[in-house]
Amino acid sequence: MTAWLLPEQFSDVLPAEARAIEQLRRIVLDAARGYGYELVIPPLVEYVDSLLSGTGQDLDLQTFKLVDQLSGRTLGLRADMTPQATRIDTHLLNRRGIVRLCYCGSVVHTRAQGVFATREPLQFGAEFYGHAGLDADREVQQLAVRSLQLGGVQRMTLTLSDVRIVRGVLAGMVAGPQQLGEILEALSRKDHARLLELTQAAAPTQRDAILALPDLFGDAAILKRAAKALPDRPLIREALADLAHLAATHVHAGVDVQIDLADLRGYNYHSGVIFGLYAQGQPDALARGGRYDEIGATFGRPRAATGFSLDLRELVRHAQAPDPTPAIRAAWSQHPGYGRAVHDLRQRGHTVIELPEGAALEGKQFLFDRQLTCTDGQWQVHSYSPS
């Protein structure tokens, strides 16, 4: 019998991990609130034309689809909550100025984003709408750093890039989506041989610029080298200046700022600065984000936008396990006053766990350090040491 089996890369969250995740969820949402972000809770299911608006093919492939029995239209299980937050900002709130929104909920992927990743991440994210300046980019990056620190990551690397650089380099060269996809894949793999093959028909200066991109990574000093290696175009100059400004303003203990101009995750979705946050010694980013000014237009209202998201189920692995909750042991009793005593203790914020007389408590989430006993008809709490 296999009724207990779950699909591959889906899993139950058991008590110890669930408690740690919930504790971290509250902490990061409170941190976002401290920056002025308002919590929204979008639905798990939407019409696919809304879920996938402006997000490109990648999210389409990641989205589970089903037919709505009421309308006959195609629905999707959300694979990313960012488009939902954008829809809320542009279509429902419809505010003119700056809007800060945050969210936390499960998303579902058709394929996991890593060998050991889950297909049901618990996505926490924050989105900043209505301001095109670098102050907004810096704020969401600072909140992302703070979120990882709250999750127990003390040393991390912040990588910065900008999709405008590659767009400026490729301007006038790419024949279509297939060639663009092949070039982006080769850049992400830093595959010089493949890039050389794909750019045979390009002008020599353009080919040299493309071949230089995989090697343009390192600390902020690499930006000076990039300015010499890349075409002198307004779009590229502006992007390099923005990266230099952001790199100079991120001075956090335990945060190493790096530039990687071939890091193009979300190229078809983002419109400017993008970033990733990596725990020291880890190959995969714990948080990713960036600017996506063009997405709001798909909902009928263009808006400057930047934000980030992360998976709390992944982040919690870096957090220190919570200590067991101190609890009062109480043996079930029909004695007058017992029920009232238990109720009053819980009302005062104490954890009271009722058990049969002599029964042991299984699990490690609670620690009995007191017990409720009746002395001369009065229910009182006394210290308790497990035998």
Verbal overview:
There is one protein chain. This protein folds into 3 domains: 7-153 and 286-322, Bira Bifunctional Protein, Domain 2 (BirA Bifunctional Protein, domain 2), CATH 3.30.930.10; 156-284, 2-Layer Sandwich (BirA Bifunctional Protein, domain 2); 325-383. The protein is built from 13 helices and 16 strands. The strands form 3 sheets. Strands 1-5-6-12-11-10-7-9-8 form a 9-stranded mixed β-sheet, sandwiched between helices. A 4-stranded mixed β-sheet has the order 14-13-15-16, with helices on one face. A 3-stranded antiparallel β-sheet has the order 2-4-3. The model has no long low-confidence stretch (mean pLDDT 92). It is α+β, with helices and mostly antiparallel strands and 387 residues long.
Name the average pLDDT.
Answer: 92
Write down the overall geometry: elongated
| Number of separate structural domains | 3
Q: What's the quaternary structure here?
A: single chain
CATH homologous superfamily of the largest domain - what is it? Bira Bifunctional Protein, Domain 2
Question: What's the gyration radius in Å?
Answer: 26 Å
| Helix-strand category | alpha+beta
| Low confidence ranges | none
Main beta sheet = 9 strands, mixed
- The tally of strands reads 16
What gap, in angstroms, lies between the N and C termini?
Answer: 40 Å
Strand content: 15-25%
CATH architecture of the largest domain: 2-Layer Sandwich
Tally of alpha and pi helices: 13
Q: Main sheet: which strands, in order across?
A: 1-5-6-12-11-10-7-9-8
Q: Helices and strands, in N-to-C order?
A: HEEHHEEHEEHEHHHHEHHEEEEHEHEEE
